[in-house]
Design a protein that fits this description.
The protein has 244 residues and is of the alpha+beta class. It is built from 7 helices and 4 strands; from the N terminus they run αααααααββββ. A hairpin with a 5-residue loop joins strand 3 and strand 4. It starts with a helix and ends with a strand.
Length: 244
Protein backbone atom coordinates (compact mmCIF):
# COMPACT_ATOMS: atom_id res chain seq x y z
CA UNK A 1 0.00 0.00 0.00
CA UNK A 2 1.49 3.35 -1.07
CA UNK A 3 1.70 6.49 1.09
CA UNK A 4 -1.07 8.08 -0.98
CA UNK A 5 -3.32 5.09 -0.43
CA UNK A 6 -2.65 5.18 3.29
CA UNK A 7 -3.55 8.89 3.57
CA UNK A 8 -6.88 8.30 1.81
CA UNK A 9 -7.77 5.12 3.68
CA UNK A 10 -11.05 5.39 5.72
CA UNK A 11 -10.66 5.44 9.52
CA UNK A 12 -11.17 2.17 11.30
CA UNK A 13 -14.44 1.55 13.25
CA UNK A 14 -12.48 1.65 16.52
CA UNK A 15 -11.14 5.14 15.72
CA UNK A 16 -14.61 6.36 14.77
CA UNK A 17 -16.04 4.99 18.05
CA UNK A 18 -13.39 6.80 20.13
CA UNK A 19 -14.00 10.01 18.18
CA UNK A 20 -17.76 9.75 18.80
CA UNK A 21 -17.10 9.41 22.53
CA UNK A 22 -15.20 12.70 22.47
CA UNK A 23 -18.07 14.56 20.82
CA UNK A 24 -20.48 15.87 23.50
CA UNK A 25 -23.89 14.24 23.57
CA UNK A 26 -26.59 16.42 21.97
CA UNK A 27 -28.71 16.52 25.15
CA UNK A 28 -25.66 17.68 27.11
CA UNK A 29 -25.27 20.55 24.66
CA UNK A 30 -28.93 21.44 25.10
CA UNK A 31 -28.45 21.37 28.88
CA UNK A 32 -25.51 23.74 28.63
CA UNK A 33 -27.53 26.18 26.51
CA UNK A 34 -30.34 26.04 29.08
CA UNK A 35 -27.94 26.85 31.94
CA UNK A 36 -26.32 29.65 29.94
CA UNK A 37 -29.70 31.11 28.94
CA UNK A 38 -30.95 30.99 32.55
CA UNK A 39 -28.03 32.99 33.89
CA UNK A 40 -28.19 35.37 30.95
CA UNK A 41 -31.79 36.03 31.97
CA UNK A 42 -30.70 36.53 35.58
CA UNK A 43 -28.10 39.05 34.43
CA UNK A 44 -30.73 40.85 32.35
CA UNK A 45 -33.13 41.03 35.31
CA UNK A 46 -30.38 42.46 37.47
CA UNK A 47 -29.38 44.99 34.81
CA UNK A 48 -32.93 46.34 34.89
CA UNK A 49 -32.39 47.13 38.60
CA UNK A 50 -29.37 49.40 37.98
CA UNK A 51 -31.62 52.42 38.44
CA UNK A 52 -32.42 51.25 41.97
CA UNK A 53 -28.80 51.37 43.16
CA UNK A 54 -29.28 54.96 44.33
CA UNK A 55 -31.89 53.84 46.87
CA UNK A 56 -30.72 54.22 50.48
CA UNK A 57 -29.62 50.84 51.78
CA UNK A 58 -29.32 49.27 48.32
CA UNK A 59 -26.73 46.41 48.23
CA UNK A 60 -24.47 48.04 45.64
CA UNK A 61 -21.40 45.84 46.15
CA UNK A 62 -23.48 42.67 46.27
CA UNK A 63 -25.26 43.80 43.08
CA UNK A 64 -22.06 44.05 41.06
CA UNK A 65 -20.68 40.82 42.49
CA UNK A 66 -23.89 38.92 41.72
CA UNK A 67 -24.17 40.48 38.24
CA UNK A 68 -20.57 39.60 37.42
CA UNK A 69 -21.14 36.06 38.69
CA UNK A 70 -24.25 35.62 36.54
CA UNK A 71 -22.48 36.91 33.42
CA UNK A 72 -19.42 34.72 33.99
CA UNK A 73 -21.55 31.60 34.61
CA UNK A 74 -23.60 32.34 31.47
CA UNK A 75 -20.45 32.72 29.37
CA UNK A 76 -18.52 29.69 30.60
CA UNK A 77 -21.59 27.42 30.38
CA UNK A 78 -22.28 28.26 26.74
CA UNK A 79 -21.28 25.16 24.72
CA UNK A 80 -18.59 26.90 22.61
CA UNK A 81 -16.70 27.79 25.81
CA UNK A 82 -17.73 24.96 28.14
CA UNK A 83 -16.55 22.05 25.98
CA UNK A 84 -13.12 23.63 25.58
CA UNK A 85 -12.57 23.63 29.34
CA UNK A 86 -10.47 20.90 30.95
CA UNK A 87 -12.19 18.40 33.21
CA UNK A 88 -11.38 20.40 36.34
CA UNK A 89 -12.69 23.54 34.66
CA UNK A 90 -16.02 21.87 33.88
CA UNK A 91 -16.34 20.78 37.52
CA UNK A 92 -15.57 24.28 38.76
CA UNK A 93 -18.10 25.72 36.29
CA UNK A 94 -20.87 23.64 37.87
CA UNK A 95 -19.67 24.43 41.38
CA UNK A 96 -20.16 28.09 40.49
CA UNK A 97 -23.83 27.56 39.63
CA UNK A 98 -25.18 27.31 43.22
CA UNK A 99 -22.81 30.08 44.31
CA UNK A 100 -24.23 32.41 41.66
CA UNK A 101 -27.79 31.46 42.62
CA UNK A 102 -27.11 32.21 46.30
CA UNK A 103 -25.57 35.57 45.40
CA UNK A 104 -28.58 36.48 43.28
CA UNK A 105 -31.02 35.38 45.98
CA UNK A 106 -29.27 37.43 48.66
CA UNK A 107 -29.13 40.46 46.38
CA UNK A 108 -32.81 40.18 45.46
CA UNK A 109 -33.86 39.90 49.10
CA UNK A 110 -31.80 42.89 50.22
CA UNK A 111 -32.85 45.01 47.26
CA UNK A 112 -36.51 44.20 47.86
CA UNK A 113 -36.17 45.17 51.53
CA UNK A 114 -34.49 48.48 50.62
CA UNK A 115 -36.99 49.30 47.86
CA UNK A 116 -39.97 48.58 50.09
CA UNK A 117 -38.88 51.45 52.37
CA UNK A 118 -39.16 54.02 49.57
CA UNK A 119 -42.49 55.76 48.80
CA UNK A 120 -42.68 54.00 45.43
CA UNK A 121 -41.91 50.63 47.01
CA UNK A 122 -44.43 51.16 49.80
CA UNK A 123 -47.07 52.11 47.22
CA UNK A 124 -46.36 49.00 45.15
CA UNK A 125 -46.42 46.82 48.28
CA UNK A 126 -49.77 48.28 49.30
CA UNK A 127 -51.10 47.71 45.79
CA UNK A 128 -49.90 44.10 45.81
CA UNK A 129 -51.46 43.57 49.24
CA UNK A 130 -54.77 44.96 47.98
CA UNK A 131 -54.62 42.74 44.90
CA UNK A 132 -53.88 39.72 47.08
CA UNK A 133 -56.76 40.67 49.40
CA UNK A 134 -59.15 40.94 46.45
CA UNK A 135 -57.87 37.67 45.01
CA UNK A 136 -58.37 35.99 48.39
CA UNK A 137 -61.90 37.42 48.60
CA UNK A 138 -62.68 36.12 45.11
CA UNK A 139 -61.32 32.70 46.03
CA UNK A 140 -63.44 32.69 49.19
CA UNK A 141 -66.53 33.58 47.16
CA UNK A 142 -65.74 30.88 44.62
CA UNK A 143 -65.21 28.33 47.40
CA UNK A 144 -68.50 29.37 49.02
CA UNK A 145 -70.33 29.01 45.69
CA UNK A 146 -68.73 25.63 45.08
CA UNK A 147 -69.66 24.48 48.59
CA UNK A 148 -73.24 25.70 48.13
CA UNK A 149 -73.46 23.90 44.79
CA UNK A 150 -72.16 20.69 46.35
CA UNK A 151 -74.63 20.94 49.21
CA UNK A 152 -77.46 21.56 46.74
CA UNK A 153 -76.42 18.53 44.70
CA UNK A 154 -76.21 16.44 47.87
CA UNK A 155 -79.71 17.56 48.92
CA UNK A 156 -81.07 16.77 45.46
CA UNK A 157 -79.46 13.32 45.56
CA UNK A 158 -80.87 12.69 49.04
CA UNK A 159 -84.32 13.84 47.92
CA UNK A 160 -84.19 11.56 44.88
CA UNK A 161 -83.10 8.65 47.03
CA UNK A 162 -85.87 9.32 49.54
CA UNK A 163 -88.41 9.59 46.72
CA UNK A 164 -87.20 6.28 45.32
CA UNK A 165 -87.52 4.68 48.75
CA UNK A 166 -91.02 6.06 49.20
CA UNK A 167 -91.98 4.72 45.78
CA UNK A 168 -90.68 1.27 46.74
CA UNK A 169 -92.51 1.06 50.08
CA UNK A 170 -95.87 -0.16 48.67
CA UNK A 171 -94.08 -2.93 46.78
CA UNK A 172 -92.16 -3.95 49.89
CA UNK A 173 -95.40 -4.05 51.91
CA UNK A 174 -96.96 -6.30 49.29
CA UNK A 175 -93.93 -8.58 49.36
CA UNK A 176 -94.25 -9.05 53.13
CA UNK A 177 -97.87 -10.23 53.00
CA UNK A 178 -97.07 -13.86 52.25
CA UNK A 179 -94.62 -14.01 55.17
CA UNK A 180 -97.15 -12.40 57.55
CA UNK A 181 -99.80 -14.93 56.49
CA UNK A 182 -97.33 -17.78 56.97
CA UNK A 183 -96.41 -16.51 60.45
CA UNK A 184 -100.10 -16.42 61.47
CA UNK A 185 -100.53 -20.13 60.77
CA UNK A 186 -97.96 -21.08 63.38
CA UNK A 187 -98.70 -18.40 65.98
CA UNK A 188 -101.16 -18.02 68.81
CA UNK A 189 -103.15 -15.22 67.17
CA UNK A 190 -105.87 -15.45 64.56
CA UNK A 191 -105.00 -17.16 61.31
CA UNK A 192 -104.83 -14.68 58.44
CA UNK A 193 -106.45 -15.63 55.17
CA UNK A 194 -105.67 -12.50 53.19
CA UNK A 195 -104.78 -8.85 53.72
CA UNK A 196 -106.41 -6.04 51.75
CA UNK A 197 -106.01 -2.26 51.50
CA UNK A 198 -102.28 -2.49 52.19
CA UNK A 199 -100.43 0.84 52.51
CA UNK A 200 -97.17 2.04 54.10
CA UNK A 201 -97.41 4.15 57.23
CA UNK A 202 -95.66 7.50 57.45
CA UNK A 203 -95.26 7.51 61.24
CA UNK A 204 -92.90 4.78 62.41
CA UNK A 205 -90.73 4.00 65.43
CA UNK A 206 -86.95 4.58 65.30
CA UNK A 207 -86.31 0.83 65.34
CA UNK A 208 -88.65 0.25 62.37
CA UNK A 209 -87.41 0.35 58.80
CA UNK A 210 -90.95 0.14 57.43
CA UNK A 211 -94.49 -0.15 58.80
CA UNK A 212 -97.47 -1.29 56.76
CA UNK A 213 -101.18 -1.39 57.59
CA UNK A 214 -104.24 -3.05 56.08
CA UNK A 215 -107.42 -5.00 56.56
CA UNK A 216 -106.82 -8.64 57.44
CA UNK A 217 -109.41 -11.33 56.77
CA UNK A 218 -108.80 -13.77 59.61
CA UNK A 219 -110.35 -16.75 61.31
CA UNK A 220 -111.91 -14.26 63.75
CA UNK A 221 -113.23 -11.96 61.08
CA UNK A 222 -111.91 -8.74 59.58
CA UNK A 223 -109.31 -6.99 61.70
CA UNK A 224 -107.09 -3.97 61.32
CA UNK A 225 -103.49 -5.14 61.07
CA UNK A 226 -100.08 -3.54 61.16
CA UNK A 227 -96.83 -5.29 60.33
CA UNK A 228 -93.37 -3.79 60.21
CA UNK A 229 -89.71 -4.51 59.60
CA UNK A 230 -87.85 -4.13 62.89
CA UNK A 231 -84.07 -4.03 63.34
CA UNK A 232 -82.92 -5.66 66.60
CA UNK A 233 -79.93 -4.39 68.64
CA UNK A 234 -77.99 -7.35 67.21
CA UNK A 235 -78.59 -6.00 63.68
CA UNK A 236 -81.14 -8.64 62.63
CA UNK A 237 -84.26 -7.66 60.69
CA UNK A 238 -87.53 -9.23 61.87
CA UNK A 239 -91.20 -8.91 60.95
CA UNK A 240 -93.41 -7.65 63.75
CA UNK A 241 -97.21 -8.11 63.53
CA UNK A 242 -99.83 -6.58 65.79
CA UNK A 243 -103.49 -5.66 65.72
CA UNK A 244 -104.23 -2.05 66.82
Amino acid sequence: MTENEISHAPPSPAIEKVASWKRPFILFRVLQWVVAAFFALVALIMAIDIGKLSIPGAPVVLFWVALAGAIIIALIHSPPAFFKLPRVGKILAYVGVPVAIVLFGNYAGQMEAAYSKTPEGAKEAAQRAEEERQAAAERAKADARAKADQEALAREAADRKQAELEAQKPKVCQSLVSQVIGMSKSGDGPEIIEINDIAPETSIEPSEALRCSGKAITSRGELDIEFSLVTTPQGKTLISVHYP
